[in-house]
């Protein structure tokens, strides 16, 4: 069952839970803010819902709360960092900010990060770059969790990809996994007792289904665009590992630690006015978005929107009316924050 929790109450409670897990005050504040913002934006799968698993990984030693990015090498507008298995959120925020610093100097900045952990909501860093006035691009490689097209077993990660355009009237931000639905989203629908809006994978008998639980059981999520999503996932995996000189999805499979442990992430920031005037570029962006938004809807009363536009509406609603959360997840967070839940309890839910 879903309930509404005031934004500040959620953020403060998550911070307490993360302090219980051993994070420093500074990192607990940062991570609590990002997790709460993600849920407020409607991405609860990688917001509040991820907190129990994150705490579990910290307590098991798979994430080092004291690990920070270390510069390995750099050349011009490109830098490479080792994340030392630190907190995925704080590592990624550092690298997104560093990419923007490089872009301010060179027009474009690229930061490749290896040996890091799950960054939670990938769109966080694209939004951050767009809201700072830069075009942003980022992606991650993961262990295998999706079958390659033509296979019936996981053979590639769903390797989320993000791109953000800094439109002053509202950024346009794409945040997508290479699967039709990420596993976190399957969990959201399952917890709510709902079917998926469209088929999202195959059940154990190989039949296409909209049952999130059946897909979680079979581990056969559907690549977005079928063979195209499958191919894009492999390309993103190889590109991230190459650019960061780090692990591919296969390396992560062989290590078997799970949840993106040891993954690579790429952050690219670009000065949108490098070759054009701000006023002209913003006018072009606005006209293009307006034309897209005015597309005739297939159903009466429907509305077409560019990626990111509905996010702003969801955020406003959450701030005014409270953030929607699953009651079971919220009870877990409260238990962690009070120190009454151990690793075994977390892993069993």
Task: Describe what this molecule looks like in 3D.
By secondary structure, this protein is an alpha+beta fold. It folds into 2 domains: 1-60 and 322-349, Hypothetical Oxidoreductase Yiak, Chain: A, domain 1 (Orthogonal Bundle), CATH 1.10.1530; 72-179 and 223-273, Ribosomal Protein S8, Chain: A, domain 1, CATH 3.30.1370.60. Helices cover 44% and strands 17% of the residues. Strands 2-3-4-12-5-8-9 form a 7-stranded mixed β-sheet, with helices on both faces. It is globular. It comes from Clostridium boliviensis. This is 3-dehydro-L-gulonate 2-dehydrogenase. One of its GO terms (molecular function) is 3-dehydro-L-gulonate 2-dehydrogenase activity. Pfam families: Ldh_2.
Give the helix/strand layout.
Elements: E1 2-5, H1 7-20, H2 25-40, H3 51-59, E2 70-75, E3 78-82, H4 88-106, E4 108-116, H5 123-131, E5 135-140, E6 146-147, E7 154-156, E8 161-165, E9 172-176, H6 183-191, E10 201-202, E11 208-209, H7 212-218, H8 227-244, H9 249-255, E12 263-270, H10 278-293, H11 309-321, E13 323-326, H12 327-337, H13 343-347
Parallel strand pairs: 3-4
Antiparallel strand pairs: 1-13, 2-3, 4-12, 5-8, 5-12, 6-7, 8-9, 10-11
